[in-house]
Amino acid sequence: MSTATDTKRKAPAGEKVADWADGRLGIYSLAKANMRKIFPDHWSFMLGEICLYSFIIIILTGVYLTLFFHPSMNEVVYHGPYEPMQGIQMSEAYASTLDISFDVRGGLLVRQIHHWAALIFLAGMFVHMMRVFFTGAFRKPREINWLFGFLLFVLGMFTGFTGYSLPDDLLSGTGVRFMQGAILSMPIVGTYLSMFLYGGEFPGGDIIARFYSVHILLLPGIMMGLLVAHLILVFYHKHTQFAGPGRTNKNVVGMPLLPVYMAKAGGFFFLVFGVIAAISGIASINPIWAIGPYRPDQVSTGAQPDWYMGFSEGLIRVMPGWEINLWGHTLVLGVLVPLMIFPMVLAAIAVYPFIESWVTGDKREHHILDRPRNAPTRTAFGVAWITWYFVLLVGGGNDLWATHFHLSINAITWFVRIAFFVAPVLAFIATKRICLGLQRRDKEKVLHGRESGLIKRLPHGEFVEVHEPLSPAQLHTLTAHEQYVPVEIGPLVDENGVKRKVSVLQKVRAKLSQGYYGENNQIAKPSAEEYKEITDGHGHH
């Protein structure tokens, strides 16, 4: 006769291992609490997944490339498989990159995948951050997560810069020289920083080795920590969702993480990997063998950075070459001013959630996303910034625009200088008007229904279009957004006629709040009385 002890003794080995691990790590309870986490199903939430999967692909391909790359600036004479370079003097870094491209099995494909994944990683983060910005997903309690995402983007930019500088070809060397010129423009400390970074006079002998350490250890390590923290906060705060029936700030409507979402995520990972691999196999990127090794006395034609550095490049290219002399020191304003603008813009992006929270005075938690049209001022700011970015991207590639479209490079430069100030303002005004127009259209839909295209003649001869009433779900979606009341300073004197003290910050806050939510900045939602009057047949339908 079997006993309970015999049954326990016959438990499968896998179950014993699971019990052992759970007793020491608490895996079962952790998994039970989190594996049924609900995630909403919307295509825009996949943007963050593209970033995550691209980062994984970058790590995997980067590990493979480190096995064959030699981060050294020691001079060697090339005797490898690429015939046109035979007998040419170059650095070990450049020679090993040629070997990876032509001698290592699959090396060129892995190089291409690594570079394309980096571009898609940063593009994905850019679009993902814009989705978070336009929908207001950065509001409490997600301000810290916005900062984590912002830091991931900035660190990704510098990781990409150090990465494409490693082959020591003429294109990347020109970029490193460009960076050195920017460092030298810094007053007082520029020369010291340059000597420290390059290990002596440019180009020095240590820059590739130093960039290599930063590229494969320091920056990826920090990014990995930020990414883990970012995902932990996503789990902790629960996922945001768009307004809809049954969706509130206290629940999430969607599918469980396991098994539905995990299955979809696994398939999407291989889809992203496949698309990146296909692009890498079709479109050549950074063909260093066609550019040649770096020489300090040469400059590559059409020298362009990757797209994410075009903003800073454009600032410097279109800035007039102004200089001033102070106390025996020459300040190169043509480089120094862009170097000051660039971090100021980044800082403004980083702290925007805190600025909007201060302007609105809203300290509540938000888990329901805004439709961009319902926050016209915020949306207009975002579009203005993107417009500014692309204007400077044109400036960063002014030589290519000139050669490809047979334009004057001076005309392009002056266009960018003018558009730098004019284009964001025009984009802001146009976007705000479009958002308000869309709000008016939503209001008309709620009150009168959707246009059906059917024309009906009334008994007295008038022709009208038949409108189809919206479903309750559609009505909820179009009217679920909040309408903020602008902050008011209040009376400047109290009930006794004594003048109140109003600080400058209070005045600024009231002015900004009026600009965000005052008159002509949002369209009033239809009231229940208006809707009842229309649907009862007393209004024009």
TrEMBL record:
Its cofactor is heme. It comes from the Bacteria. Pfam families: Cytochrom_B_N_2. One of its GO terms (molecular function) is quinol-cytochrome-c reductase activity. InterPro entries: Cyt_b/b6_N (IPR005797), Cytb/b6-like_sf (IPR027387), Di-haem_cyt_TM (IPR016174). The chain crosses the membrane at residues 45-69, 113-134, 146-166, 178-199, 211-236, 265-285, 326-355, 375-395, 407-430. Keywords: Cell membrane, Electron transport, Heme, Iron, Membrane, Metal-binding, Respiratory chain, Translocase, Transmembrane, Transmembrane helix, Transport. It is found in: Cell membrane. It catalyses: a quinol + 2 Fe(III)-[cytochrome c](out) = a quinone + 2 Fe(II)-[cytochrome c](out) + 2 H(+)(out). GO terms for biological process: respiratory electron transport chain. One of its GO terms (cellular component) is plasma membrane. It is a multi-pass membrane protein. It is an enzyme of class 7 (translocase). Residues 17-243 form the Cytochrome b/b6 N-terminal region profile domain. Its EC number is 7.1.1.8. This is Cytochrome bc1 complex cytochrome b subunit.
